[in-house]
Amino acid sequence: MSVVSGIIAGESSSDAADAQVSASRDATKAQLKMYEEGREDTAPWRKAGVNALSTLVEKINAGPGDYTKSPGYDFRKSEGEKSIERSAAARGGILSGATAKALQRYGQDYATNDYQNFLSNYYQSLTPYQSLAGIGQTTASQNASQGNQVASSIGQNITNAGNAEAAGYINTANAYTGAINSGVNNYMMWKYMNGAGGAGTAAAVGGATSPAYYNAATDAAAGSWLEALA
């Protein structure tokens, strides 16, 4: 029967749309859950990176500190000077001006090298914090990328759900409209067959027991509620 079939088609379209919307919501929940679990799993690396970055900034702001000679500075400098003096004595020029200049130059170069070592040790002390901060930055970037992907997927889920819901409304409306139109047509035919056209009209479509007449009559039962619209 056309009216009943239309109603069934309309309900089916609505149910299908609801199923698609529900599936989109389930997909969104699953994606959010996976993203949140991923952030929780990588939280220790992010936290370590944040702490390391804070310490690194403090150390850089404080600088290398005051240079007060490295441990063993005086001893090593003294041994170097003795070596120069012994070499000069062997040549008979320990009290010469050349020896004095050599000792002065050695002292200056030694101090410069020792200070460079002091700075090198300072920069090396920053390396572990730089590495940890880099790990935290990499982890945060990965989380951000994953967040963008999840947001894009959820946006697509929302779009799909909206499209499915809209299509369900349209299909349901079309099915009901078709059912109403078919029901009105059948009902009007049935009224005509039982009115002025009478038995002659019924006979023209094959008699009161013919399929055409039967379909019109049965649709009339479903279409009785349409009479107010006629």
What would you note in describing this structure?
- This protein is an all-alpha fold.
- It has one domain (2-229).
- The protein contains 5 helices and no strands.
- Helix 1 (2-62) runs antiparallel to helix 3 and helix 3 crosses helix 5.
- The two termini are 20 Å apart.
What is the structural class? mainly alpha
Shape: rod-shaped
- Helical fraction equals over 70%
- Rounded radius of gyration (Å): 47 Å
Tally of strands: 0
Count the DSSP helices: 5
Number of domains: 1
The percent range for strand residues is under 5%
End-to-end Cα distance: 20 Å
Q: Give the SSE string.
A: HHHHH
Low-confidence stretches: 196-214, 216-230
The major sheet is characterized as:
none
Mean pLDDT: 74
Short description:
Helix 1 (2-62) runs antiparallel to helix 3 (97-193), helix 2 packs across helix 3 and helix 3 (97-193) packs across helix 5.
Map the helices and strands.
Layout (H helix, E strand, L loop, with lengths): L1 H61 L10 H18 L6 H97 L4 H7 L6 H13 L7
Helix pairs in contact: 1-3, 2-3, 3-5
Please give a handful of descriptors for the protein shown.
230 residues; mainly alpha; disordered C terminus
